Amino acid sequence: MERATYKPLSFHQLKPGAGFHQPSTYRLVQVDSPAIEAMTDLQQVSAATIGADVKLSLATQTMIARGVRLLLVVSPEGEVLGLLTARDTMGERPIKFIQQNGGKHGDLNVRDCMTPINTIEVLALGDVLRAEVGHIVATLKNVGRQHAMVVDTDVVSGNDTVRGIFSITQIGRQLGMSLQAFEVAKTFAEIEAILAAG
């Protein structure tokens, strides 16, 4: 209903130490919940991306700023070239690259440590739509990975489009567990305990 007059709202002082709301990228699930509920859906959340020629140190800063542990490496045209995880930036990969090729850590680019697209295994969206969260946990455990990308394949062209990403850390949070990065074995053991109890 339209009013003739509108009374202004009153302001008050912002208290020191105030934070700010951020959109939640996950909701609580059960092991038998549809798997799609545990997937970061790139139709709803912007993908965290980076260029292949960006310095590795900037990639690490980007992950921290975005609160993610995986970046899609993309071309200027938006084509996926590979992926880069926090393990790739802070693990053995940079050291091995320097040992094999020389140089300094500060000289490394994303391209030097990323997983190239031709070596990335993905899950099909159709399979994910028929799966439960427990299936995704079992899948990630089976391959010993923290992440899995999900693709939607165009039936006419046959081209893949990355539709979503699963993260074992996020799934743990969604199951109501507090998890630390890089504790994959412990994470799987904790999630398995939940699966067994359920």
Please give a structural write-up.
- By secondary structure, this protein is of the alpha/beta class.
- It has one domain (about 35-195): Roll (CBS-domain), CATH 3.10.580.
- The protein is globular, with a radius of gyration of 21 Å.
- The termini are far apart.
- The protein contains 8 helices and 8 strands, in the order ββαββαααββααββαα.
- The protein has helices spanning about 55-65, 85-90, 90-100, 110-115, 125-130, 135-145, 170-175, 185-195; strands spanning about 40, 50, 70-75, 80-85, 115, 120-125, 145-155, 160-165.
- The chain is about 35% helix and about 20% strand.
- Strand 7 and strand 8 (about 160-165) form a beta hairpin.
- The strands form 2 sheets. Strands 1-8-7-6 form a 4-stranded mixed beta sheet.
Name the features.
8 helices; alpha/beta; 4-stranded mixed beta sheet; CBS-domain; single chain; 198 residues
